[in-house]
């Protein structure tokens, strides 16, 4: 009887152990699949009738929620055209709100098909995602209070500079200016609130964003309008999603015939910038960057 009891207990232990082992392997595999999910192909997107596009919801005037609760902005204007040309309707877009630091992960995990969130092209990002042709160019700018203007980067030594995580501003100042203390936030709204509250001496971001922000906030100015390299902004897809990438490139080339991005500028950016920026300093048509 004792031998039978011991044998039964051993059998139960082995079964439980096997089940636990399978469960652990299953969860690990599931996590891996969640972070490295295969992107939907162009045909799959067409068959589904919906395209998932990642945009900002707090970066006026590029991607933001207006007073009526509707998503608007320069990137969104382009996204709407993609929905219309690819699937026949703007309603075919499922907008997914992203943060700067989550843009790569959202592509790699298959949460979105395309990122149109003011995504600056860098060599490091090229290793992680595939960029289409550019539709905008940009440098970095610095916003500071009029009562304590920062007109030279050297003035930021031993002071606090606000940046958003996962942006070119964070990368640039982390690498080039080790004596500047960076105060980092996940979202643009958090960063702008921090500047308003005096939790930092200045705010570094894309110069287009800096100029737009300072124009709307009395008592602040874009005291450094251009620093670092002039970079480009482009749509991005999951690495290896070649058919969707090619479609986006063809779309950008085709839109040049109607000067689409100049129209985009007039509709979404001109009301904000006025004559502070000319379209030629920002807009890229047909994926060709004019020197």
Explain this structure.
By secondary structure, the chain is an alpha/beta fold. The protein contains 10 helices and 13 strands. It has a 5-stranded mixed β-sheet, sandwiched between helices. Strands 5-1-6 form a 3-stranded parallel β-sheet. It has a 3-stranded antiparallel β-sheet with strand order 2-3-4, with helices on one face. Strand 9 (160-164), helix 6 (168-176) and strand 10 form a beta-alpha-beta unit. The protein is globular. The N and C termini lie far apart (90 Å).
Q: Estimate the strand proportion.
A: 15-25%
Could you say which overall geometry the principal axes of the C-alpha atoms support?
Answer: globular
Class per helix and strand makeup: alpha/beta
pLDDT under 50 segments (min length 5)? 1-34
User: Major beta sheet, specifics?
Assistant: 5 strands, mixed
Ends apart, CA distance between termini: 90 Å
Average predicted confidence as pLDDT: 88
Keywords:
single chain, about 290 residues, alpha/beta, three-stranded parallel β-sheet, 10 helices, globular
List the helices and strands and how they pair.
Elements: H1 2-35, H2 42-48, E1 51-55, E2 58-59, E3 63-65, E4 71-72, H3 74-87, E5 93-97, H4 103-108, E6 114-115, H5 123-126, E7 129-131, E8 136-145, E9 160-164, H6 168-176, E10 181-185, H7 188-196, E11 202-206, H8 207-216, E12 220-233, E13 236-238, H9 242-255, H10 260-273
Parallel strand pairs: 1-5, 1-6, 9-10, 9-11
Antiparallel strand pairs: 2-3, 3-4, 7-13, 8-11, 8-12
């Amino acid at each position: 009887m004792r031998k039978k009891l011991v044998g039964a207990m051993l059998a139960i232990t082995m079964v439980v152990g096997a089940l636990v082992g399978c469960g652990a392997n299953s969860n690990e595999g599931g996590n891996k699949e969640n972070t490295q999910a295969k992107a939907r192909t162009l045909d799959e997107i067409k068959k589904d009738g919906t395209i998932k596009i990642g945009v900002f919801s707090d970066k006026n005037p590029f991607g933001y929620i207006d007073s009526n609760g509707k998503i608007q902005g320069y990137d969104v204007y382009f996204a709407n055209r993609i929905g219309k040309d690819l699937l026949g309707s703007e309603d075919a877009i499922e907008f997914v709100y992203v943060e700067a630091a989550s843009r790569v992960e959202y592509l790699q995990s298959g949460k979105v098909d395309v990122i149109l969130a003011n995504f600056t092209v860098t060599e490091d990002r090229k290793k992680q995602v595939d960029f289409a042709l550019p539709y905008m160019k940009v440098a970095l700018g610095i916003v500071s209070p009029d009562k304590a203007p920062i007109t030279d980067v050297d003035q930021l030594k031993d002071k606090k500079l606000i940046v958003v995580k996962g942006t070119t501003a964070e990368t640039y100042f982390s690498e080039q200016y080790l004596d500047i203390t960076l105060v980092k936030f996940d979202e643009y709204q958090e960063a702008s609130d921090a500047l308003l509250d005096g939790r930092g001496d200045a705010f570094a971001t894309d110069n287009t964003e800096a100029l737009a922000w300072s124009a709307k906030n009395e008592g602040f100015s874009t005291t450094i309008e251009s620093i670092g390299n002039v970079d480009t902004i482009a749509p991005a897809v999951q690495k290896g999603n070649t058919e969707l990438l090619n479609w986006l490139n063809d779309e950008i080339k085709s839109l040049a015939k109607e000067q689409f991005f100049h129209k985009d500028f007039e509709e979404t950016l001109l009301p904000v910038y006025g004559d502070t920026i000319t379209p030629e300093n920002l807009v890229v048509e047909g994926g060709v960057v004019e020197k």
